[in-house]
Amino acid sequence: MGHHVIKMPDIGEGIAEVEVIAWKVEVGGTVAEDQVVAEVMTDKAMVEIPSPVAGTVVSLGGKPGEMMAVGSELIRLEVEGAGNLKAGAAEPEPAAAKPAEPKAEALKVEASKPNVSKPELAKADAGKSPAVSNHESPITNHRGAVTNGVLNAGEAPLASPAVRRRAWDMGIELRYVPATGPGGRILHADLDAYAQAGGKAQSSGGGTSGGGYARRTGEQQIPIMGLRRKIAQKMQQSWSNIPHITYVEEIDVTEVEALRAKLNERWGKERGKLTLLPLLARAVILAARDFPQMNARFDDEANIVTRYEGVQLGIATQSAVGLSVPVIAHAESLDLWQTAAEISRLAGAVRDGKATREELSGSTITISSLGPVGGIVTTPIINHPEVAIVGVNRIIERPMFKDGQVVARKLMNLSSSFDHRIVDGMDAAEFVQAIRRRLETPALLFVE
Known about the structure:
This protein is α+β, with helices and mostly antiparallel strands. The protein is about 25% helix and about 25% strand.
């Protein structure tokens, strides 16, 4: 028997370190060839690390949330044969497969404050189930439901792409769903059980809710790691470095919505249904030709603004693990249906965790849309180092005066933010007005 060490691979583009997100194996467990052993996070994407050999896990190189240098020891396996570790190399410190102490990232529930009387504490303790190990104890999540098998804070849920997509469609956050599959994997049946329980994880019989007016003293500490950490860093960088100006304009989308309905009626079965987003994307692309300073990236260290002829259009996309911005490469070269197909493909890749680094890099201007929950006004944060972002609010139908008559019209606000170091307020307003003209007179979308 020998030892085989898997080192943190060089993922490319000069990355010196990556963050460990989740282990797919544990000390003492067996690993098959090509089995994924860990998920790590670069500054752009989640990457799965497979094992090139079969063996038994001897040690793990880091904890979830820790940064590891490229080339450092990720995992050590005991394998048949000599392995790849030279004789006399240092052995790892023995590590228990199940630590006796609770993890630092596990949810913490604080005891009652000192002013609570002892009888009250006794009553609270009386309803508790006997203490068990950290992995088996019921956990109170932030929704107040007592769950068994729900992930500790900071742990990534295990589920197939099909389960993740179905959870997204059902509006269910996977981290709250108790898993019954092998290795803690969430199954379709778990989604069904969670939905039938009214969106609450079921208790195994230890605790009680205490009623709607019961005093609640639980607290939850959630480590910010993985994609959420990258989002936090990116947002802080954008908000700290970029002086934002936000311009809001009301758009009458009655005509473009009527056009969309006709296009879907005529071509929907053959080419797929269009949403408003491809039409808006076309309006932004054409407006950017008149205002090239919007389709740009600003290197604030070198003090250089780079304007682009091609539009690498970012589409802000929400997934179960956070916000990402996949990029439609050369969106100016795509027709409406090609744009719609690319939006759908990229959104699916993000939600399934399969988007590549290339698909998440290089955008020159971004559209952010929350769809029917888009609200009346938003203040979108610019995707650094871009200089402009167009935010889409929800469409509402209300009465308006038109040609002396009160008529029903479909109205939508655009809330757009600009880097005020690069874009003057007048230019920002005229850019949005150029988008507005094309949406209110949709024939202009097809005239270059």
